Amino acid sequence: MKYDEVDDYLVKTFPDFVIDDYALGLPYCVAGSFARYLLDAYNNNRIDTLVLAGKFIEGLYFFKDEEIDNLATVGYLEAIQNVWGNNSTDPEEMVKYLGGTSQKWWTRLNRSWNGEINALSEDD
Fold it and tell me: Is there a domain that residue 121 lies in?
């Protein structure tokens, strides 16, 4: 998959997710909208959607594409942390639905927020 195909893949995976007009062609904006979609799923106990979202995000890392990896981390994971945290929901609730690679980058983001590391650097 190529970077500019991620949004299409997202919509195919989540047919009830609608990309807002303002976000078309802007994958990081789409990631923010998707984080709000997942918050709604969490608030409505749609666990199947959260499980699928965890698999979707984890799957992005398997393309071994730097742009897609960055979108998965700084787009999707960071958007979940921000959107959920700013809406009185502990973003850590999403961690149990993430795969191993996603959890690794989630932890790196947390460490980055704490000023310990650069989130996108493989080196500590």
Answer: no
Number of domains the chain contains: 1
**Lookup result for tokens 């979202």:** 53
pLDDT, tens digit (0-9, with 9 covering 90-100), for 77-113 = 999 999 999 999 999 999 999 999 999 999 999 998 8
SS3 state of residue 37: helix
How far apart CA 43 and CA 58 sit, in angstroms, is 22
CB within 8 A of 89, min separation 6: which ones?
39, 42, 43
* DSSP reduced 3-state for 16: coil
- In a domain, residue 57? The reply is yes
pLDDT tens digit string along 15-70? Answer: 999 998 989 899 999 999 999 999 999 999 999 999 999 999 999 999 999 999 99
Q: Of 59, 48, 45, which Cα lies nearest the Cα of 10?
A: 59
Which domain, by its residues, includes 60?
A: 3-113
Q: Is 123 domain-assigned?
A: no
Residue 22 one-letter amino acid? Y
